[in-house]
Design a protein that fits this description.
The structure is a homodimer of 464-residue chains.
Chain A: H1 4-17, E1 22-26, E2 32-35, E3 38-39, H2 46-52, E4 60-64, E5 70-73, H3 79-85, H4 91-97, E6 102-104, H5 107-118, E7 123-124, H6 131-141, H7 154-164, H8 169-192, H9 199-212, E8 222-224, E9 244-249, E10 261-266, H10 273-292, H11 299-317, H12 324-330, H13 357-361, E11 388-391, E12 394-396, H14 399-407, H15 417-421, E13 428-430, E14 433-437, E15 442-444, H16 453-461
Parallel strand pairs in A: 1-7, 5-6
Antiparallel strand pairs in A: 1-4, 2-3, 4-5, 8-9, 9-10, 11-14, 12-13, 14-15
Helix pairs in contact in A: 8-9, 8-16, 10-11, 11-12
Chain lengths: 464, 464
């Protein structure tokens, strides 16, 4: 974990933003896979991690915004636990590591929280996303758990967002350090992109590279020769010559900061010229987005700059036509990129997505759009130094979506459907980097994973 | 999945055992890691898998034990889902694959279940182990979710246990086929057992071997040079010469049957003579248990035969003393093996552990013990052909437990504490196989992973 001063400082800044009530910050418990004691990799709640740093299950914290008290709750282990888990430090000692002096057994949590609740003090919490914590909050507040979800605190969320959006130097160092594992994952996938290998084999190896490198994957790996399926979490295919392999994968650092990159490789090591044309447009779009990513611009504008670059490229190939600005304004390009350009990244791969995407990615100035494509943009607001975002333009030929747009005669002024038909079966390409907003511009975190077509081809070929 | 006749037959046999009410069998939904859309590997509920076979999220089933009806509930996907997930078959078509003709959207589930509940008909379900399904059942039955856990049906559990305990030929084939992946995992670990390698690296690679081989790990990997910690899920150590590396790891087959093996390797490839003495006792105990494992014997007896073999071995080394039968009867050996010999294995690594261990592993004839050590035995009842169990004797030198027993002057007639003190720091050894009960005896499933000390040493050395 970070030094205790970091956590003390974060809590102090939180207290500076909040006036009334108490914050209830529940850690996670182990998540049951198929029975209570068979659990997934433990993942601590990110809000708990941010303010209290302790990375094991069964903890809870309360911050009293009026008295200023900070209390950690948890149970110490007995000899039976020690037989199964080995010797364990006491909660009291762990709490000191994050600058907290007041600790209680978990049984005391209900007394303190329900007392505050009964006194009419606001109990602030972020939206719970696991059933166990929903049940827990229901129990603590003595309300039916089915009512808990609507009770979260917008004020508390906004305070957390304002702190967590701007990464501290230590957070940036941790993220940058872990980019080496991301690099290894993606170059490993490139080297494996040969006919006869299965998607499942590559996925397995990448999970292993991530875990060996320090932590589990930061989200379910997308590894597919059907890249036009945006979030393809099944891996049934065997690679064959001529396929494009899209790999969207990331790893959690030891302190649980996420990486998130996408690369698309030609199976066997050589793009066809048709593939290379589309691939180059996506590279150009990624680079245009990177150049535009800087403090002061809204991320919505960066998204639209990317859309314009993409539309120009598609027009040069004859897949689109007409006025580029007008096509982008109407959202015609969303046939080819129905998702947003990117999102914030930090302790979560979609950072703070448990809170409420509108409060994380938007504000009074920039509101979410309802236009198809743009509506999927997760981040619209103005960029500030030390934000970290992903830039992930993609281009896809999705047969069902093409059929739908065509049958509804959508954007016939901008889309050359006759030519688009000949791209059915092409698949999809996405290229994604993790980008730090600096004082004056932005830079890719870590050594950039091979991106230019000849570099990707060379990396694939080196795995032969 | 299996052929539809398998599922039809299972449901028919279930209906033969049940008379009144309806069964509510909830599939799992994706489990949130750190926000709702960032999920762990999907794991379907085993009871749902057993009776309905469909391996995706958001499904539920009802079996009416009076009318005989079988209904599957789920929602079909729309174009927005298809963009993100690719084309998806309809529930109606999936249902036919498992022999079910009646399907409804999920919204209809509440109507049917709450109607039955209001009519005073028993709604049978197994104990829910995920918060989301606890909340769901609360909603369906219109009761506070905090009350749901106590409402499960013992009668329904007993019917499920009687079916699932006896593995069908197809299940045994599936399990045996996947033993090749278990073999690969454990021999990979042996080959990596060299100084300078980290536990985390090995764990990562093993997760990759499992995933590449067909499915995720079947439980969190134990990979530790501190093998005396029974369920050690942290991996902070770097291997060094003279360490013993204990690896307890398994993989899920494509149909989600578990493997579960443990091997203990000498780091660098050579047991010390002190290590070899203890190791050989554990091998002998494993073999004695295997010979005793057969239809008609109670598993409690097999456990006690293993305990006796182990005690004899410890006595020959001078670590124990006195009358062997009496030492075992009093549980003195549990200082060295505080856990049970094994458990059933199938769709779950501890098969059916979500139900209630007493209903799975015990019956009117054989009840759980309260004696330290024996109390941790998960399976006591009489073995039948086509049970599959793990045999996993182990021997550990747990400093905290030694101190506790010694200070309480426990078993001073049987334990030579002076000598035991010299084994503090030794660590632990466990050796575990998956064993099928046959008509006349038992056999290890799959090719046996190297077990004899010289074979393990050779495998480690081959990885140099």
């Amino acid at each position: 974990m970070f030094s205790k001063d970091i956590y003390i400082n974060r809590r102090q800044r939180l207290k500076d933003k909040m006036n009334k009530g108490i914050a209830l910050i529940l850690g996670n418990i182990d998540a049951a896979m198929n029975y209570p004691d068979n659990t997934y990799h433990f993942r601590q709640d990110s809000t708990f991690l941010y303010f209290f740093g302790l990375d094991y299950q069964g903890l809870a914290a309360v911050i009293d915004f009026e008295s200023g008290e900070e209390i950690l709750f948890g149970n110490d282990f007995d000899i039976d636990d020690i037989i199964w888990m080995g010797p364990q430090p006491k909660l009291k000692d762990n709490a000191l590591k994050v600058g907290v002096t007041q600790t209680h057994p978990l049984s005391k949590l209900k007394e303190i929280v329900s007392k505050a609740h009964q006194q009419g003090r606001k109990v602030h919490f972020t939206p719970p996303y696991r059933g166990e914590n929903i049940l827990k909050i229901g129990d603590l507040l003595n309300v039916n758990p089915l009512k808990v979800k609507e009770m979260h605190s917008i004020e508390f969320i906004k305070a957390c967002v304002s702190l967590r959006s701007i990464k501290e130097p230590g957070e940036i160092e941790e993220m940058e350090r872990h980019m080496a594992v991301a690099y290894q994952m993606h170059t490993t996938a490139m080297k494996m992109a040969h006919p006869g290998v299965t998607e499942q084999q590559i996925t397995g190896i990448l999970e292993g590279v991530s875990m060996s490198g320090g932590g589990p994957i930061s989200f379910p790996i997308i590894c597919s020769v059907r890249g036009e399926t945006l979030h393809n979490h099944v891996h049934p295919n065997t690679l064959k010559s001529g396929d494009l392999l899209l790999v969207d994968a990331g790893s959690e650092s030891p302190l649980h900061y996420a990486t998130d990159h996408t690369r698309t490789s030609p199976v066997g090591g050589k793009f066809t010229s048709k593939q290379k044309d589309i691939y180059q447009i996506v590279v150009d779009t990624n680079n245009a987005a990177l150049a535009a990513t800087k403090p002061g611009i809204t991320y919505k504008e960066v998204h639209l700059i990317a859309a314009k670059t993409m539309t120009e490229g598609l027009k040069s190939l004859g897949l689109m036509k007409g006025d580029v600005d007008e096509a982008v304004a109407q959202g015609a390009h969303a046939l080819f990129m129905p998702h947003g350009l990117g999102h914030m990244i930090g302790l979560d791969v979609h950072d703070m997505e448990d809170y409420d995407q509108r409060l994380v990615g938007f504000d009074e100035e920039i509101q979410p759009s309802t236009q198809f494509g743009l509506a999927a943009l997760r981040l619209g607001r103005r960029l500030q130094p030390n934000f970290v975002v992903t830039n992930e333009p993609g281009m896809y030929f999705i047969p069902d979506l093409i059929d739908q747009f065509k049958s509804e005669k959508k954007f016939t002024d901008f889309i050359n459907y006759e030519m688009v038909e000949t791209y059915k079966g092409f698949g999809g390409i996405r290229i994604e980097d993790d980008v730090l907003i600096t004082e004056t511009g932005s830079r890719v975190l870590g050594e950039r994973i091979p991106i230019n077509p000849e570099d990707v081809e060379a990396m694939v070929q080196s795995g032969k």
